[in-house]
Amino acid sequence: MNDSLGKSKPTLESLLNDQQVITGKKLIERDRLAKQEADRQKAILEEAIEFEQRNRRVRS
């Protein structure tokens, strides 16, 4: 038989150490942070829209 001496398969531990695999906790945390950032961006946009509406000048 022909034994292959190529790369060995990486272990789960080595993939976690190289940050190539994400755990459930990290996925939940990443999702929570993304939602917080989206909420923050939405609040900024709404504040900017309100400011523009309050300070709108009528063109003559």
- Structural class comes to mainly alpha
DSSP summary, beta strand count:
0
Q: Can you tell me the residue ranges where pLDDT is under 50 for at least 5 consecutive residues?
A: none
Strand-and-helix sequence, N→C?
HH
Give the helix tally.
2
Q: What integer value in Å does the Rg equal?
A: 25 Å
Distance N terminus to C terminus?
A: 89 Å
- Overall mean confidence score, pLDDT: 86
Helicity range of the residues? 55-70%
Q: Quick one: biggest sheet?
A: none
Characterize the overall form.
Answer: rod-shaped
Topology of this structure?
Blueprint: H1 12-17, H2 24-54
Give an overview in words.
This protein has 60 residues and is an all-alpha fold. The chain has a domain at 16-54. The protein contains 2 helices and no strands. The chain has helices at residues 12-17, 24-54. The longest helix is centred in the middle third of the chain and has 31 residues, at 24-54. The termini are far apart. The model has no long low-confidence stretch (mean pLDDT 86).
Short key terms for the protein model shown above:
single chain; 60 residues; mainly alpha; 62% helix
Summed up, what is this model?
The protein has 60 residues and is an all-alpha fold. It has helices at 12-17, 24-54.
